[in-house]
Amino acid sequence: MAVIKTPCLGICSTTSFGDVVCRGCKRYAFEVIDWNGYNADAKLAVLSRIERLNTQILENKLRIFSEASLKAGLDRFQIPYDESLSPYCWLQNLLKKGHGRMEKLEDYGVYALGNYAFMPLPELCEIIENDLLLLSEAHHARYFAPRKRGHKSSS
Description:
The chain is mainly alpha-helical. The protein has one domain. It has helices at about 15, 30-35, 40-60, 65-75, 85-100, 120-145, and strands at about 60-65, 110.
């Protein structure tokens, strides 16, 4: 079986700042800490969640028209990406680690949709980052945060 790559981008805020959700890879703090002890199925489950959340946010704001140009940009900036995941995960890595060196999204095989097309890239990246963190934190709160005793679920 192939080794499953870590989604780490080298921007770990869980160990540096104690964040519940890593600002880099979007894993939860306990996933960052326990990653090396996870079996393949557990790692794939984490990657699948990150992929779904990234894709959900990015597809509504950006369109990839050239995977080859996106890969070339990632390679040029030496930004890691996992080819087994959606290109929108690769794009998130590029935006997270390379947006300060980018001028036009189109040079990387990407264009912005709707009102996002008229936004400066740093502002667009900030919106995407905030949306991803908000969605990841909501997911964590829903599925992993400890439930208060005595609180009954409505289901």
